[in-house]
C-alpha cells in the first residue's frame, strides 16, 4: 500500500510539518522500541528539522507512506526506501531531496517519506495524477517482488498444497460441490479436478473423509470446523512461543495451554506477549497471559484490530479479556440494504447511487467484505466488482464469521499498563489498589496470584507513607483515589508539556483539533494525545484511532463520548463505532 499526499506550504503548513517530523521521530516507533530516526539517500541520521526548513519557501511538499505487505520480511527497510526513491528519481528525471523514517511499532513495518516539492533545477516538482494513483505503488511493489519473490505465486502454491493439515481454499471448493454430505469428483470444476483428487486422497488417509466408490466420498458436516481446529492448534502453539520469546516467560513454555472462551467468560492476567498466527500481521493473533487462575494461557483473537488496546503496552501489564456474543456487522446490514434497493445486486456504483453521502473509502470497505464473503459462499461474485446478494446474506455472513472465529467476540482491555512491580511505588491509582481490603486475591492461583499477594503489603506501605487510605487491611476511599489520579495527571502533563505547549484534558462540550500523536494511560484509562498548534489535548482513546496516527483531526466531547473526525472528512463521522 502506498499513500501519497501533497501539502501546500504556508505558515500553518510549516508548523504542521514540524509536528509530523516529531511524530515520525516519536519514542518507541523505531526498531526494537527505539526512538524513530530519519535517514536520507546518504545518511542514517538525517536532520529532519533542517529538511523542514528547506521546504518553507517551496510551493508544496509530499508525504508518502509506503507499507509493504510483507514488510517484516524485508531485510533492510532503509535500503528498500533508497532503492524505491532512486526509481522515483529516474521516473521524474531529476534528483529529489527527501528524508524518511521507518516505523516498527504497529506490527507492520512501514515507511514515512517526506519529499520536497522542488526539482534539481529549481522548478516545482509535480507528480502526475496517474503516477500518484498507480506509478508509486507499482514501483514499490516491483521492488518488493524482486527482493521477496512473487507474492501471488507463493500464496497460490500454499493454497494448492494437497497435504496441508488445515482448512484450505480447495476444501472450500469441495464442501461447496458436495450435496447432502456426498461428493462426486464429477461435481468439481474440471480445471481443478486433479488437485481435488489429490486433496481428497490426503483427507481420506487422515480419516477426515470416507471414500464410498472410486469417485465419490462422504464429507462430514463439520469438516471445516475440524480442519480449522486441527490446523490452528500448531499455529497457536508456534505463535504463543514466538510471543514469549526473549521475555519474562520464555523459560516457562511447558506451562502454555490453549484457552477457549464462551460468551460471558472473563479472564485477567499479566500480559506475556502477542504474535500473529499466520504469515500476515493483520490476521488472527495469539495473546498470552499469565492468568489469575494459574494458567499461562494463550487466547486466539480473530484480527489485529481486536488487539489494538495492547498498542505499546509493556510486558507484565494487567490485561482483561471478556468474551461477548458475536454481533451482526453493520457493514453486512448496509450491504443487504443497498442490495435490496438495487434489485439484489451490490457494487460500488450501486452503493454510491443509493447512498451518495458515503465516502469512496467507506464503500471500498464494503466491497472488500463482499469479496471475502463470496469466497465463503455467502454471496456470489459476478465480476467487474458486482455481487449478487441473497435475502439471507446477513445470516450467511454471520455463519461464516462463526465458522472462522468461533462463537465469541473477544474484548481486550488494559486494566493497568504497569507491571505489578511498578505499581508498588506508583503515585497513581493502580490495579493493586482495587484489590486492597478485598479477598479477591485469595482466589488467585499460580505465579500471578503469588506475585499479587507479595505486592499488596508493599503497596499498602507505600500508600500509608503518602498519607492515603485507612483501616486494617488498608482501604482507599473516593478522596484517596482522586488524590492519586490528580498526582498522575500532573506527572503526565509535565512530561507532555516539556516542549512548552500547555496540556488540557478534553471537557464535555469542548471542541479541539490537532494531530493524533500517541496514547497515554491516566487513572488506568487510555487517552489519545492530540497535539494542536497551540496546545495538547487528552481525549478518551478508542482502538480505531490507531489507524489514524499522525493524521490531522478534530474532536468534541459530549456526555463522555468523543466524536473524532479526520483529514478531508473532518466535520462528519468517520464510522469509528462500526
Instruction: Assign the CATH class of the largest domain.
Output: Alpha Beta
Order of strands in the sheet with most strands: 9-12-11-10-13-17
| Fraction of residues in helix | 25-40%
| Mean pLDDT over all positions | 85
Overall structural class, as computed from helix and strand content, comes to: alpha+beta
Given as residue ranges, the uncertain stretches (5+ residues, pLDDT < 50) are: 151-159, 568-578
Rg on CA atoms, Å: 27 Å
Any guess at the CATH architecture of the largest domain?
2-Layer Sandwich
Enter the CATH topology name of the largest domain: BirA Bifunctional Protein, domain 2
Amount of beta strand: 15-25%
Total strands: the figure is 23
* Mass-distribution shape: globular
Tell me the span between the first and last alpha carbons: 23 Å
Number of domains: 6
A few lines on this structure:
By secondary structure, the protein is α+β, with helices and mostly antiparallel strands.
Characterise the protein shown here.
With 578 residues, this protein is α+β, with helices and mostly antiparallel strands. It folds into 6 domains: 2-149, 2-Layer Sandwich (BirA Bifunctional Protein, domain 2), CATH 3.30.930.30; 160-221, Arc Repressor Mutant, subunit A (Orthogonal Bundle), CATH 1.10.10; 226-326 and 409-415, OB fold (Dihydrolipoamide Acetyltransferase, E2P); 330-405, Arc Repressor Mutant, subunit A (Orthogonal Bundle); 418-475, no CATH class; 487-569, no CATH class. 36% of the residues lie in helices and 23% in strands. It has helices at 11-24, 48-55, 77-92, 129-148, 151-160, 169-177, 193-205, 223-244, 330-341, 348-354, 360-375, 393-405, 420-423, 431-435, 446-465, 478-496, and strands spanning 2-8, 38-39, 60-66, 98-103, 110-116, 182-184, 210-213, 216-218, 256-258, 266-276, 285-291, 296-301, 318-325, 345-346, 380-383, 386-388, 408-416, 503-505, 511-522, 525-531, 536-540, 552-558, 561-566. A 6-stranded mixed β-sheet has the order 9-12-11-10-13-17. The chain has a 6-stranded mixed β-sheet with strand order 18-21-20-19-22-23. α1 (11-24) packs antiparallel against α2, α3 crosses α4 (129-148) and α9 (330-341) crosses α11 (360-375). The chain is globular. It starts with a strand and ends in a 12-residue tail after the last strand.
Amino acid at each position: 500500500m502506498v499513500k501519497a499526499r501533497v501539502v501546500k506550504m504556508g505558515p500553518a503548513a510549516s508548523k504542521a510539518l514540524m509536528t509530523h517530523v516529531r511524530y515520525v521521530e516519536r519514542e518507541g516507533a523505531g526498531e526494537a522500541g527505539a526512538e524513530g530516526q530519519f535517514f536520507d539517500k546518504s545518511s542514517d541520521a538525517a536532520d529532519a528539522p533542517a529538511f523542514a526548513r528547506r521546504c518553507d519557501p517551496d510551493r508544496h511538499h509530499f508525504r508518502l507512506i509506503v507499507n509493504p505487505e510483507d514488510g517484516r520480511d524485508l531485510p533492510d527497510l532503509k535500503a528498500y526506501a533508497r532503492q524505491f526513491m532512486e526509481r522515483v528519481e529516474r521516473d521524474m528525471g531529476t534528483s529529489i531531496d527527501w528524508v524518511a523514517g521507518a516505523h516498527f511499532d504497529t506490527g507492520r513495518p512501514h515507511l514515512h517519506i517526506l519529499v520536497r516539492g522542488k526539482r534539481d533545477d529549481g522548478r516545482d516538482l509535480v507528480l502526475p495524477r496517474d503516477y500518484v494513483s498507480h506509478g508509486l505503488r507499482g514501483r514499490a511493489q516491483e521492488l518488493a517482488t524482486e527482493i521477496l519473490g512473487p507474492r501471488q505465486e507463493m500464496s497460490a502454491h500454499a493454497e494448492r498444497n494437497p497435504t496441508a493439515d488445515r482448512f484450505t481454499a480447495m476444501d472450500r471448493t469441495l464442501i461447496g460441490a458436495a450435496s447432502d454430505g456426498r461428493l462426486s469428483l464429477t461435481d468439481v470444476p474440471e480445471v481443478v479436478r486433479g488437485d481435488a483428487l489429490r486433496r481428497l486422497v490426503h483427507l481420506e488417509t487422515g480419516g477426515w473423509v470416507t471414500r464410498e466408490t472410486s469417485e465419490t466420498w462422504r464429507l462430514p458436516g463439520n469438516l471445516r470446523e475440524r480442519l480449522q481446529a486441527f490446523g490452528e492448534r500448531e499455529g497457536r502453539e508456534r505463535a504463543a512461543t514466538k510471543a514469549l520469546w526473549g521475555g519474562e516467560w520464555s523459560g516457562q513454555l511447558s506451562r502454555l495451554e490453549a484457552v477457549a472462551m464462551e460468551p460471558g467468560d472473563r479472564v485477567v492476567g499479566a500480559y506475556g506477549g502477542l504474535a500473529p498466527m499466520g504469515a500476515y500481521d493483520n490476521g488472527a493473533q495469539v495473546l498470552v497471559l499469565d492468568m489469575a487462575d494459574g494458567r499461562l494461557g494463550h487466547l486466539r483473537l480473530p484480527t489485529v484490530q481486536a488487539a489494538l488496546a495492547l498498542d505499546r503496552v509493556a510486558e507484565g501489564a494487567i490485561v482483561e479479556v471478556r468474551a461477548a456474543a458475536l454481533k451482526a456487522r453493520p457493514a453486512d446490514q448496509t450491504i443487504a440494504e443497498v442490495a435490496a434497493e438495487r434489485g439484489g445486486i451490490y457494487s460500488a456504483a450501486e452503493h454510491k447511487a443509493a447512498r451518495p453521502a458515503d465516502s469512496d473509502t467507506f464503500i471500498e470497505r464494503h466491497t472488500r467484505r463482499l469479496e471475502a464473503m463470496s469466497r465463503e459462499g455467502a454471496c456470489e461474485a459476478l465480476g467487474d466488482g458486482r455481487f449478487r446478494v441473497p435475502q439471507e446474506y446477513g445470516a450467511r455472513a454471520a455463519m461464516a464469521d462463526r465458522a472462522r472465529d468461533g462463537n465469541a467476540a473477544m474484548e481486550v482491555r488494559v486494566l493497568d499498563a504497569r507491571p505489578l512491580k511498578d505499581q508498588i511505588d506508583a503515585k497513581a491509582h493502580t490495579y493493586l489498589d482495587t484489590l486492597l481490603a478485598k479477598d479477591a486475591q485469595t482466589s488467585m492461583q499460580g505465579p500471578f496470584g503469588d506475585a499479587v499477594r507479595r505486592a499488596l503489603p508493599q503497596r499498602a506501605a507505600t500508600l500509608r507513607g503518602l498519607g492515603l487510605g485507612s483501616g486494617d487491611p488498608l482501604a482507599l476511599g473516593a478522596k484517596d483515589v482522586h488524590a492519586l489520579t490528580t498526582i498522575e495527571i500532573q506527572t503526565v502533563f509535565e512530561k507532555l508539556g516539556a516542549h512548552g505547549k500547555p496540556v488540557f484534558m478534553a471537557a464535555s462540550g469542548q471542541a479541539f483539533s490537532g494531530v493524533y500523536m500517541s496514547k497515554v494511560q491516566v487513572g488506568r484509562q487510555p487517552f489519545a494525545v492530540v497535539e494542536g498548534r497551540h496546545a495538547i489535548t487528552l481525549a478518551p482513546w478508542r482502538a480505531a484511532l490507531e489507524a489514524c496516527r499522525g493524521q490531522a483531526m478534530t474532536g468534541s466531547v459530549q456526555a463522555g463520548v468523543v466524536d473524532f473526525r479526520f483529514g478531508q472528512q473532518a466535520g462528519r463521522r468517520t464510522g469509528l463505532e462500526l
